[in-house]
Amino acid sequence: MAAHFDTLIVGAGFTGSVIAECLAREGGQRVCIIERRSYVGGLANDFTDAHGVRCHRYGPHIFHTKSQTVWSYLSRFTSWRRYEHRVVANVDGRLMPFPINRDTINSLYGLKLNSAREMKRFLAERSERTNNLRTSEAFVVAKVGRDLYERFFRGYTRKQWGVDASNLDRSVCARIPIRMNRESRYYLDPLQGIPLDGYEALFSRILSHPNVEVQTSEDFEQLPKNISYDHLVYTGPIDRFYGYRHGKLPYRSIATEFKNLPTPDGKLIQATPQINYPSEDVPYTRSVEFRHLTGQQHMSSTIGLEFSFATGEPCYPFPSLESRKIYRRYRRLAAKEHGITFVGRLAQYQYLNMDQVVAQALLAAARIHGKANKSASRDHALKGICQE
Ligand SMILES: Cc1cc2nc3c(=O)[nH]c(=O)nc-3n(C[C@H](O)[C@H](O)[C@H](O)COP(=O)(O)OP(=O)(O)OC[C@H]3O[C@@H](n4cnc5c(N)ncnc54)[C@H](O)[C@@H]3O)c2cc1C
């Protein structure tokens, strides 16, 4: 039977799901959202494994934001487990805080640096400046010197990105702060947490509006002919939309090996939620114990060991001059379209945090149903989050 929708949305990750909810509730639209995978949530999906432990499918997903608007919007669908992520790096068998802070330096070199000033002086004495700060290697070496670069960044970057940091855009390592104080939280945003009942429950509530029809295991490329629509929202890979006519956009992919271990006393296995392994002698990049994140009490615990590959699910856009050039060609094609909105991390070929894609989705939905200018200050604040 033929079905007509006001809007068809491709992809049920955060971007597509939030747009679907807003168009249905605020815009009174009839929306169909199709998802290639058998589950919704995209990269943020979580699931309960065969041992009854809730795990994050694509690496640990910690929600963090400065935006009260984004936080309040999602809080309609979930309560939060207050959670602040902490990471340590395993350097020659010793665990120390990461991102690098004063405790990292004191523990690594047996020092007693007592102030931000002492820390800055310590790093300044080691920093090596070059004229060209375009690569991740040059950027880190200029900030912290070669020894810290070799111990914390070199091997990890080679494993995660498949190339040496000397051939990698500086933006990759520039995302990682170096702290002059003893701050050990990974994210510093004022609002941080994990959806109390998990991401799966959060998405099922977002998508529960009666005007939203959800179809999983449905690929846009094989869309049944009987579905028609007035507007298309596309959150999938932009190069695939255009049949790769300007070439394939490169991505790094990850695969997680899940290991369940008995914990009869209910205790956790790792002292911290995430351990990074910068050494190339260890084949994976990090290990994550999910019960730290979820707070789940259980008689066993599941740890995810993360491996990086050049092929597989597109996870991280590979930043380079060449990939930016290819993306710009697709963006020019997209700008000429009428009745299609390209939005989300795959359509924009950009690494974006969850709060950023939610902010973009709220703005996109307002534009589509024509209410964009009714709350200009809210939209201004949301734009700020998108551009961070
Ligand atoms: C390893 C990793 C860890 C991360 N950790 C964090 C974190 O801790 N905190 C944070 O804020 N952010 C984190 N992120 C970023 C976060 O995952 C993204 O911001 C968010 O998931 C993007 O949502 P999206 O809807 O734009 O994309 P996606 O989640 O990728 O959703 C797009 C959906 O479109 C579907 N699709 C694509 N093509 C088609 C098609 N042809 N037909 C039908 N469906 C299609 C896909 O299957 C997918 O489900 C992490 C990212 C990675 C890679």
What features would you describe in this structure?
The chain has 13 helices and 17 strands. The chain has helices at residues 14-25, 68-75, 102-109, 116-126, 136-144, 146-161, 170-174, 199-206, 238-241, 290-294, 321-335, 354-368, 376-386, and strands at residues 3-10, 31-35, 46-48, 54-56, 63-65, 80-82, 87-91, 94-98, 191-195, 212-216, 227-234, 251-262, 274-276, 286-289, 300-309, 316-317, 340-342. Strands 8-7-13-14-15-12-16 form a seven-stranded mixed sheet. A five-stranded parallel sheet has the order 10-2-1-11-17, covered by helices on one side. Helix 1 links the parallel strand 1 (3-10) and strand 2 (31-35). The longest helix has 16 residues, at 146-161. The chain is globular, with a radius of gyration of 22 Å. The relative contact order is 0.21. The mean pLDDT is 95.
